[in-house]
Each structure stands twice: as structure tokens, then as C-alpha cells.
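Hey, can you fold this one?
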Amino acid sequence: MKASRLAATGAVAATAVIVLSSPAFAHVSVQAEGTAAKGGYAVVDFKVPNERDNASTTKLEVNFPTDHPLASVMPEPMAGWKIEVTKSKLDKPLELHGEQITEAVSKVTWTAATKDSGIPTGYFEKFPVSIGALPEDADELVFKAIQTYSNKEVVRWIEVQEDGAEEPETPAPVLTLSAASEDGHHGSTAAEDADAKTENAAATTEADTGDSSDTTARVLGVVGIVVGALGVAYGVLAGRRRSDA
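Sure. Predicted structure:
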């Protein structure tokens, strides 16, 4: 009985290890740093784990959605990786900051700079990209990704999750978009933040100057009253001395 129980326990443990090692638990994913509000801009990270024991990840290709093209896509420089940005012409031009955009980024490719670099076994890496303006008529964006290993193996993370269905074996990264605020503000840019700080500093300086001016005026007023009172007292005393004389 004890032997059979031990065998059963071992089988359950082995099954758990196999399940946890399934690719579905360690796939390429995308997540925003902060929020990704509709109509705004965001920095997103493509998280890439290395699932192989005998190879490193040496290449990542991320295809950007064509149904909701993004006018601005800027990857962050990464040590040890070469980055290639591919653009394609748009069927319908986009407008960005008052200008017509006729092409948009359709793919970003990261390639390890040397054969010995890349993502080693047991590690993951994040690939940051600044994107915008995010669509206002969509709840999510799908980015199909292709992961290449040093042994030439290719994994295509391109399967789209269907409503009510189980998660596919190689799901495509999906970015969930949050609603814009009620006042229509989609998030501030660095320039807007700088302007706000300048305005606040100016307001603070003005307030400090005003307070200082008020304080000075009050002090001078009090001094004037004291001087006037002393003058009156001196005049009274002088008059009395003359009368006595």
C-alpha cells in the first residue's frame, strides 16, 4: 500500500511538472508600463522568456496591427540587440499633430548582436516600445510575434484567442486598452508635464512675491504709525516745556 501511494504521489508530481512546463504558461506577452488609455500614448514591454534548455533566443519579430495602425512607434535602444523598424504605406492616411501620415510601422525586429548574445536559458527579457496614438474605437490590440532560437527553431506566437475558447498553445500578445478619462485627457506628455511644472513654479513665485509685498507693506505701515505717534508725543512734550518756561 505504501509503495503504491508513493508511486501515485510521484506520478501526480511528474504530471504537475509537465503541465507547468507547457509553452502556454511562458509565452511572449505585452504589457503597458502604467496605463494604455484609448486615444493616448503608452510605453509597452514585450516580455520574451527563453523556454529551451539547449538554445538561446536570438531574434524577436513583432508585427503591429494593420486594422488599427499606430502613427508613432519608437523602440528603446537595447545593449546587445540590433533593432530594425519596418514601415508600410497606409490605405487611409492618419492625422498626427495636424500632419497627414501616409505610412506606419508594420514590424519591429530585434536581433542579437552576436551569436553568443541573446536571451539565455532560464531568463527572460523585456523589449520596450513607445506607441501611439492608441485607437479610440478598440478595446485591445493584437501583436503577432515570432521568436527564433539559436538552433534555428522558430515559434510563432500568432494564434488569436477566441471568445469562450481555451487559450491556444501559441497565443499572440494582446494589449488591453483602458478607457480615457471623462474630461477626454489621455495622459500627459513630457512637454506637457514640463509646462505644468513651469506654470506651477511661476505661480508659486508670484504667490511668494505677493506675500512678501504684503508683509513689507504691513511692516512699513506699523513703523509709520509708531513714528507718527512718537512725533505727536514729542510735540506735546515740547509744548508743555514752553508753557512752563
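The CA atoms of residues 83 and 110 lie 5 Å apart. Let me know if you want another pass with a different chain boundary.
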